Amino acid sequence: MNTNKSISKNKPIIIAGPCAAESKEQVLTSIKEAKRRKVDFMRMSLWKPRTKPGFDGLGEKGIDFLIQAAKLGVNPATEVLIPEHAKLIMDKVLSKVPNTKLLLWIGARNQNHYIQREIARVAATDKRVFLMVKNQPWVSKDHWEGIIGHVLDGGISKDRLILCHRGFIPNGVNPHGYRNVPEYSMAMRIKDKTGLPMIFDPSHTGGSVPNVMRVAQEAAKHDFNGIIVEVHHNPKNALTDAKQQLTWEEFDSLVSIITKH
Ligand code: PEP
Ligand code: MN
Q1: Ligand 1 centre and the CA of 178: distance in Å?
Q2: pLDDT at position 9, please?
Q3: Ligand nearest to the CA of 45
Q4: Predicted local distance difference test score (pLDDT) of residue 260
Q5: For residue 44, which of 21, 60, 203, 218 is within the disulfide window of CB 3.0 to 4.6 Å?
Q6: Displacement of CA 180 from its chain's centroid (Å)
Q7: What contacts 24+ positions apart, CB below 8 Å, involve 150-154?
Q8: DSSP category for residue 62
């Protein structure tokens, strides 16, 4: 596991934490656990675009939680839906904790290329900000490459851009019943062609704890540059993605299993 606070080409990038920021207790516990494990970034999204309406994140009200993580030496990470979110988070977090790194990501459901490019344009303005882009929900190598092209057009530097494979909506063979089906060879082709780091998201591919474990082991046979994993101190009561969030102990076993490869 990467014990370095900066991301590097040679060490795996480890991002872990709850699907969404929910409460003070949840966030403080997560920060403590994430800090102990020296993760590169702790995820805790403030915005959650949902398939069906439900808890869709704390939004601006949660910004203090990102600041709290940064103050305690844990680099925060959240999805942003529009450039204004990126700007707001960057202004508030980086002014309060100038020595933190910040990871913003564009999620699978956010498939407006104009918005993708404008988010990248905002992220590009500060060297402390990293941008992660996930693949779209449906299978298409062209579309995936399109997303990457559009964010690069926004001016984000290649050394602050991370790609993430989170599988595609099942459409055919899916023997293990994954929530989203990985296309490892496509991910590897895009990684090689772009020269960008490609990490893997076993949480949104697997969809349930046993499948998260299974798919993470499968993915470890490929040349990914890291993982982003959903981890919650009390998964059963999580407000989003309760079925797939690991406990911190399960996260430890996952890391030890995959680092054996
Ligand atoms: C997430 O990472 O919180 C998420 C919603 O994932 P995706 O955009 O891959 O569905
Ligand atoms: Mn989730």
Answers
A1: 15
A2: 56
A3: 1
A4: 76
A5: 21
A6: 15
A7: 150/113, 150/116, 150/117, 150/120, 151/106, 151/116, 151/117, 151/119, 151/120, 152/120, 153/117, 153/120, 154/116, 154/117, 154/118, 154/119, 154/120, 154/121, 154/123, 154/124
A8: G
Cα pseudo-dihedral 51, 104, 102, 8, rounded to 10? 110
Structural tokens at position 153: 């057009």
Would you state the pLDDT for residue 5? 37
List of long-range contacts for 84-87, beta carbons under 8 Å, 24+ apart: 85/46, 85/47, 85/119, 86/119, 86/122, 86/123, 86/129, 87/122
pLDDT score, position 50: 87
Burial class (CB within 10 angstroms; exposed 0-12, middle 13-18, buried 19+) of 172: exposed
Q: What per-residue confidence (pLDDT) applies to 4?
A: 35
Name the residue with tokens 């779209």.
Answer: 136
Query: Rounded to an integer, what distance in angstroms lies between the CA atom of residue 243 and that of residue 19?
Result: 11
Q: What does the block give as tokens for 154?
A: 């926004």
Provide the 3-class DSSP secondary structure of residue 43: strand
Determine the angle formed by the axes of helices 113-123 and 83-96, rounding to 10 degrees: 20
Q: 108: Cβ below 6 Å to ligand 1? A: yes
Beta bridge partners of 132: 105, 162
At residue 81, what is the residue type? L
DSSP-derived 3-state class of residue 198: strand
**Residue ranges of the chain with pLDDT lower than 50?**
1-7
Query: Mapping DSSP to helix (H, G, I), strand (E, B) and coil, where does residue 157 land?
Result: coil
Can you give the pLDDT at residue 21? 98
The verdict on pTM exceeding 0.85 is yes
Other C-beta atoms within 10 Å of 24: how many? 11
